[in-house]
Each structure stands twice: as structure tokens, then as C-alpha cells.
């Protein structure tokens, strides 16, 4: 009998990554493709997951006929929304079995090599997970409309808001404000049009400007980062209160926030022992082991 | 020759109102209908404007053949967005002439009987206008994504954000939080689903809870209202700095904010001498007078 194939999927708003290996650990392939955001487009997400999976399998000389022996661990942003999870469960996928968790939960599995611990994802959005045995406690990660405090989308949007306030003579001007308005040729109406259509990742494009500004002592940038940091520190503190022995910081803003954390938190920050795809593969392994019904 | 008809339109996200009168002041009729939000649906907005206009004309026994002698003053939310204004200008309307300003500008005309002054619209959104002669200076009113600080949508969304933070053990709990979560049967995921689809007016449905909570000393509600008030006071102060002799507060939250304003601002708060439809008619009159090309 052929051995099972494990498929690890890390799917988020900007891209979908897949790593495939045999149950005995032999690597098969790894590929990357477009968005797997089940919140904004479930059909597109499933399409991308499958096409990236096929690509990863093809790297190891495997094809369509092997999908049926795949055990897929799917880490998907939005999987914590019950209606989406239900909708997802009802859709056919050609895999032998599948298990679904949020992208944050599989990232936590990966960062701690499937052992206990906690993570903070500080990227376009923000999300926090504390694992104790089989229990995963999620904090934040509720999406841009009501959550994501301190994430790149949040910082970038705050910069645009500050630019409008300055434009209206209400808020303070600064070099950051000038740089932001310059991106719209100084035209506030164009900034507003951008803001009305922007996705979190589009707002996030301004986050580096904000972080750089804060490093350079720009007062508006410092105020925006201070507010983001306040939220990040509150969430990290909550993870420690839940008993987390160490917290791994992940995401594009991890390196920007880490030196800003108070000294009391620094000793608890750990290094990742694996990535989200390792975590998704660990989830897939629970299927192949028969540990999970 | 038949005398011109003046049509005043006040169009916003939740409804469109029209008042019709003859150029000599004789009333014709007044009607109300669905949304005239050119930002979200220009075709629907134009359709509603025309059907409500027909209804107002019909009240005075006028009909389709009279549209051609109508001079329409349109006060429309979103008219300050250049791309929308262009699109709107390119669409045919059966009126003799038309002039378009934002809903906030016509409200300022109306509140001060077409004389100089300033207004603050404190409704689902917030917007401020200072008029000096032919110059209208707008502050805020850039829409929910980046502006509207202190408005009902803003306060309501802040309450949902606070409820999620409390749910996650990060933010403080309070009676307000309990009332908000109760609306979703205590299910944070349902709150998130609501928040992901909610329009500003949907978030605004929670604003009365927030204002009532602040009146009752609820600490979370007080913090949310204090932040909104900070923005309102900053904008009112800016209007005074621009030389406004008095400011009329309009919108559903005007009565809730007024007693909260600092004593230094109270002497500048005035009473409205007319409504937004009066202002739209004053705009229409500039067309009939031939004052405006």
C-alpha cells in the first residue's frame, strides 16, 4: 500500500502556501499562489488551494491520481467564523481527509514544533494564540473591521486618518503627513477615494512609513505606533496571564515591534522552531495517525 | 410664461428628501424616499431623486411636463469626491438646470438662512462647514473609512470593538459590554460577522446604548464618548478659528453632544433658522436668479 501524503496549507489574504511530504517525512514539494481568503471569496480560495497543492505534488512527480491519498491540514484565515467554517465543510475537496484550523493556530503549532506555547502574529492584521495541550485559545484576529489593532493595516489607516485631520487643520502636521499626502500628489480627495476602496493590505503599504517615522522621532508616527504598541503589549500580557511559557513573534511587523516591547516582556519572547507550513503538516499528521476522527 | 419651479434635494445614505416650491415662494409639495448615496450606488441615487421629486410635484398637481422648468439644488453626500462629481455631471437629468453641493453645504445654507455661519453635522457620520460669503470650507465628512470621528457609526463600532477586547480578556467589561454582547446572544463570532458586513448606519444602531451608558456612568461608554467628544470639540474649535460667529449643531447626536461641550464653546452654539431642504432651495434659487451659470 502506498503511504499517505501530508499536505500543509497556510492560506491568508495575500497568498496561499502549500508544503507536501510523505507520512514518513520525505519531502515532495512546496509551492505558493494567490489569496486563500475564505472570508472574501471562498470559491477562489478553494481554487487556489487546489492549484497550489497540484503544483507542490508535481515537484515530486506526483499528479491528479495522488490527491485521493492526501491528508490535508488547512490553516485558513477566517476559519474561526462559524458560518464560513460550515460553508467550507460542505464543499467537496478531492483529499482523503482534511482538518481545518485558523492560520494563527497552525502558525502556533509550527512555531513551537507542535508543543505548548504561544504566538503573536504581527502582520497586516494581528492575532494571538496560546496552546496548552489540545486547547488553543485565540485572542484577537477578528478581522480588520473590528480587530487587528497594531497591525500594518491598522497603522497605515491611522496614518491616512492623521493626514486628513492635518489637512483639515485639526490634527498636527509632520514629515509623515507630508510623505503620506505626497503619495496622493497632495490631493486629500484622492486619499479619500483610495481609503474608501482600500483593503487591509493596501492600508498596510503605509505601515513601513509609519514605523520609519517613529524611528526618526516623527511625533505623529510615534503617536500611531504607541497606540498600536499599547494593544500589542496588552495582548502579549494576556498570553502570559494565560500561562504561556514563551511567545514567538511572527509576521512582517514582528521585527519592528520587538525592540519596542517593555523590558518586562522581553524575557518571554522566543524563537520559532518551525513555520506555519510545519504546523499545517503537524495538523495533517493528526489525520494520518488516525488521532483525529 | 410659467414661473420657474425650485427643487431642493437633501440626499444621504439613509434617505432622500425633496421640497418643491415656485420661484415666488409658493409651496408645491414635499416628499421622502430611499437612499441617495452617490458613493455606493449612483444609479439608484438618481432614480430615487427623480421619483421623490415627481412625488413632491404631484402633491401640487404638477407632473412630468413640468420637470423641464425645474431648477434643482442638489445637496448630496459624496459630492465632494471629484470622480463622483464628474460621473454625476455626465448623467442626464430632466431638469432645466441643476447645481450640486454636498449635503453638509446645503445644510449650512439652510441653518443660517443662506447667510454666513457654520454647522456641525453630528449624525451617523460627522461633517463641519464654515461659510463666509461664497466660500464654504468643509472639515471632516470624508466618510466612514477614514473620517466620521464621533459620529454614531464611529461610537457604535467602538462599542463592538470594546466588546471583543473584553471577550478576549484584554479590555475591561462593563454593563455596556454586556448589553452589546446580549444583542448577539453572547456569541462573539456572530458579533464579528455582523461587524464584517455592517454599514455605518448599522454600527450607528449601537450609538444610543453608548450615549445612555455614558450618562449612567458606564466606564467603557464614557471612554468611547470622551474620545468622540474630543474629536467634535477639536472640529468646533477649528470652525471658531476660521472665524465662525456661531455654529448650529445638526443630526441625531446633536442633542447628545451639546450638553457635553465645554463651557467655553457653549456661547457659540446657535439655533437653526431653516433645514437642509431650505438650503437646497436657496441653492436652486441661485440658478433661477441667473446668479450661477
From TrEMBL, chains A, B:
SUPFAM superfamilies in the record: Actin-like ATPase domain
Pfam families the UniProt entry points to: BcrAD_BadFG
A molecular-function term among this protein's GO annotations: kinase activity
Keyword set, alphabetical order: Kinase, Transferase
InterPro entries found in the cross-reference section: ATPase_BadF, ATPase_NBD, Euk-type_GlcNAc_Kinase
Record domain ATPase BadF/BadG/BcrA/BcrD type: where: 7-256
Protein name as it appears in the record: N-acetylglucosamine kinase
Organism: Aureimonas glaciei
